Amino acid sequence: MSREGDSPLVEVECREDVAIVRFPSKMFQRAETEALQGKMEDLFLRGVTTFIFDLGDCLYISSEGLGTTARYWKFCRDRHKGRMAVVMGENTDPEVQNLFEIIGLAAVIGSAVRPTVDDALKYLKTFS
After folding, report:
1. Cβ within 8 Å of residue 74, ≥6 positions away
2. Taking the model in full, what pTM does it have?
3. Looking at domain 2-127, which CATH architecture does it have?
4. Exposure winner among 7, 31, 92, 104, fewest CB in 10 A?
């Protein structure tokens, strides 16, 4: 397990070949999206193509956060043959979960929405 250069807005923890992305502020909005972009580019350049967006403690997600999640999901699937899971557990604000449902992102991601990071890791290893 290793930690990438963390910022106050985005933390990245690597477990084996999976990058786990967390948002310490419990918010995923424009500032976090901008901080995430550089981290993701660096990970892609290093060949990391399997990710978990940990929204397990997320209290708010903006349209930028939703769009970024969808964009990286599609990018991993279509261009890099990667995999991605999203953690939404009992501490995820219900409004965040509802937004994923309303815009159809939960249906697109499907069974890759998992309740814990460990469950998401197990899912990604099983279906990789």
Report:
1. none
2. 0.89
3. 2-Layer Sandwich (3.30)
4. 104
